[in-house]
Design brief:
mainly alpha; about 95% helix
C-alpha cells in the first residue's frame, strides 16, 4: 500500500515536471520568435540608415557642385538622387 502511494506521488511529480518542461519550451520558442523579429527589424533599420547616409552624401555633393558652379555635375548628381529615391519607393 505504501509503495502504491509513493508510486502515485512519483507519477504526479513526473507529470508536474513534464508540464513545467512544456511551459519552458513554449517560453523559449516565444523568445526565439521575438529575437528573430528583432533581428529583422535591426537589419531594416540598418538598411534605412545606409540609404539615408547615401542620400545625404549625394545632397552634400550637389551643394558643393552648385557652389563651384559645376551645374553639369550637380544635374547628374540630382538625377542619381532622384533615381535612388524612386528605387526606395
Amino acid at each position: 500500500m505504501r509503495l502504491k502511494t509513493e508510486m502515485r506521488k512519483i507519477s504526479e511529480e513526473q507529470s508536474s515536471i513534464k508540464a513545467q518542461q512544456r511551459q519552458v519550451k513554449e517560453k523559449f520558442e516565444a523568445i526565439e520568435s521575438e529575437c528573430k523579429t528583432l533581428r529583422q527589424e535591426t537589419i531594416l533599420v540598418m538598411q534605412q540608415s545606409a540609404c539615408t547616409k547615401l542620400r545625404l552624401a549625394l545632397m552634400f555633393q550637389i551643394l558643393k557642385a552648385r557652389e563651384n558652379n559645376d551645374f553639369a555635375t550637380a544635374a547628374d548628381l540630382t538625377l542619381a538622387l532622384r533615381e535612388l529615391i524612386a528605387q526606395k519607393n
